[in-house]
Every structure is written in structure tokens, then in C-alpha cells.
Specification:
The strands form four sheets. A five-stranded mixed beta sheet has the order 4-3-5-12-6, sandwiched between helices. It is rod-shaped and about 105 Å long. Helix 1 packs across helix 2 and helix 1 packs across helix 3. A hairpin with a 2-residue loop joins strand 1 and strand 2. The protein folds into three domains: 84 residues, Winged helix-like DNA-binding domain superfamily/Winged helix DNA-binding domain (Arc Repressor Mutant, subunit A); 93 residues, Periplasmic binding protein-like II (D-Maltodextrin-Binding Protein, domain 2), CATH 3.40.190.10; 101 residues, D-Maltodextrin-Binding Protein, domain 2 (3-Layer(aba) Sandwich). Helices cover 46% and strands 23% of the residues. The protein contains eleven helices and twelve strands.
Length: 297
């Protein structure tokens, strides 16, 4: 049984005439007759009695007409849902982001996207870069936003922005007053750091590496789960931290922290998608809002 057969049956039942149903559907009379005959033969039931030049529903036909109309209505509703999804009048955009990009870079862009597409729902999950990659890989998010590249070959990264990293210190620290930043100065600092797998944690490792030091050479007193926790710990006098300027700027402007510019390359922000999965219209539209062609990501 096909939707076309149901449409033909309903058209004949409503007009009680095969020829008029054929004219309404722009089909031949033989096509109409064959569809009705196929339905009757397939289910071994008579749906119409032939009366003169017209037809009349049998008792089985009257019962079936109610169900056929209901099925066609549901099919039409399903088609409208697809049209709404394609036209961004319905749908959900699921984004996973690492902490810096998710908390500081992404919200303004999501707000603008939501204003342009007010009928779309937007959800944002925040974790570290490894967690974001896992969420994309597991199908729990449509797109991911991370700081720095990821190693998963199933994920396609496209750079969409950049970040600069700073060394944050208590305002009265000698380095904040212009002391030299070298390997000796780094080894003399006490650091608070992010957990392994975080983009911010990688940047502390790169800072040490730029002076020939490993993480084991640095005095790391605490490992904390968020950028805000690092910033608060430094403000409380726990030591120094490598942070995104996006995270630190407010506290620096207020005088709660001092920030030392670092001679490190800008940290890129990447949008991620799974190479093997189809992108929903909402995800394609958000990539477009970021200036990324859907086939490039």
C-alpha cells in the first residue's frame, strides 16, 4: 500500500466517480482503476460497488476512508515538518564547546544567530577540548568549538577565530612590574593549571617549552577544572596562570590581576564536525554565520 494509492482511493471515494477522480489528480482512468484494483486484490476486500457510471463505497470502504484520510493527513504533516526544518522554522542546533570559546567567544555569536532564526532551539554543552571531541564523535552534538587542533581524524576542523594567551599574576608581583621573563623566572613561579586535555593546559606546556622547560620543571601547586577557577585562584594569591586574554581582561582592567604578554603564536579557535555525518540545516546555517562553507567543514 502506497500513499499514491491512498490518495487515489480518497479521490474516488469523495467524487464517487473514477473519471472525475482521474481528472482531479491529472492521471489516466486506467491508472485510477489499476490502483483501486491493486488495493482490493492485495487485501482481498471490495472497497467500491459499481453503480451505473459511478461508484459507491462499501461498508469496508467507508471504514477504510477514515483511516486513509488520517494517514494522508499525517503524511502531509510530516512533509510540513521537513519543510520547516529545511527553512529553519523548526529544529535544534546542538553545540559543544571548550571552556574559553564556549564562555567568552561563542555567546555573542549564538545570540546573533538566534536573533536571525528565532524559531530554532540552541543548546550549548561546555567541557574541555577532549570532551568536546568525544561528544562530536558520539553524535551528542552537531558542531564543536575548541581552542587548538584535535587529533581525531574523523573530525573536520576549520579555523574561525584566534585568541591570545597571557601570563596572569598578582598586581604586585615583580614580573608584573617589568621583571624579565625567562626560564629562571618561570621555574621560580608557582602555577595553578587546568587539567590534562584542556586547551588552556596545553598553552602552559607550550610556554614552558618555549624556554626549554617541561611541565615537570614547573611548580604546579593546583590543577583546577575551569578558567574562572584559575583566575580566582590567582586573584587570591595562589600563584600565576596562563589564561586566555578573553578570560583575564576584565580582572586586569579592574586592577585585580596583572597580565604579561607572551611571545606565543595566537591560539586558533576551530569549529569541528564529524566527517561521516550529515549536517542538519540548522548546523549548516550556523557554519554560514561563522563564514564557513558547509562543505569546507
Amino acid at each position: 500500500m502506497t500513499l499514491e494509492q491512498l490518495r487515489i482511493f480518497v479521490a474516488v471515494a469523495e467524487r464517487e466517480h473514477v473519471t472525475r477522480a482521474a481528472q482531479a489528480l491529472h492521471l489516466t482512468q486506467s491508472t485510477i482503476s489499476a490502483a483501486i484494483a491493486a488495493l482490493e486484490a492485495r487485501h482481498d476486500v471490495r472497497l467500491f460497488d459499481r453503480v451505473g457510471r459511478g461508484v459507491r463505497l462499501t461498508e469496508a470502504g467507508r471504514v477504510f476512508l477514515v483511516e486513509a484520510r488520517a494517514v494522508l493527513a499525517r503524511a502531509e504533516a510530516a512533509g510540513e515538518v521537513l519543510a520547516e526544518l529545511a527553512g529553519l522554522r523548526r529544529g535544534t542546533l546542538r553545540i559543544a564547546a571548550s571552556q574559553t570559546v564556549g564562555a567568552y567567544w561563542l555567546p555573542a555569536r549564538l545570540t546573533a544567530f538566534r536573533a536571525a532564526h528565532p524559531r530554532l532551539a540552541v543548546t550549548l554543552a561546555i567541557g574541555n577540548s577532549e570532551q568536546v571531541a568525544a561528544w562530536i564523535g558520539g553524535g551528542e552534538a552537531d558542531l564543536g568549538m575548541v581552542e587548538g587542533p584535535v587529533a581525531d581524524v574523523d573530525l573536520s576542523p576549520v579555523e574561525v577565530g584566534q585568541d591570545r594567551m597571557v601570563l596572569v599574576l598578582p598586581p604586585g608581583h615583580p614580573l608584573a612590574r617589568g621583571g624579565p621573563l625567562d626560564a629562571t623566572a618561570l621555574k621560580a613561579l608557582t602555577f595553578v593549571a587546568r587539567e590534562a586535555g584542556s586547551g588552556t593546559g596545553v598553552m602552559l606546556e607550550r610556554l614552558g617549552g618555549s624556554f626549554g622547560l617541561s611541565l615537570a620543571d614547573l611548580d604546579i601547586s593546583m590543577e583546577l577544572p575551569s578558567n574562572e577557577a584559575l583566575r580566582s585562584a590567582v586573584e587570591a594569591g595562589a600563584g600565576a596562570a596562563v589564561l586566555s586574554a578573553l578570560v583575564a581582561d576584565g580582572a586586569v582592567r579592574s586592577g585585580q590581576l596583572a597580565a604579561l604578554e607572551l611571545d606565543l603564536p595566537p591560539r586558533p579557535f576551530f569549529v569541528l564536525r564529524h566527517r561521516a555525518r550529515h549536517l542538519a540545516p540548522a548546523a549548516r546555517a550556523f557554519l554560514g554565520a561563522l563564514g564557513v562553507a558547509a562543505d569546507a567543514a
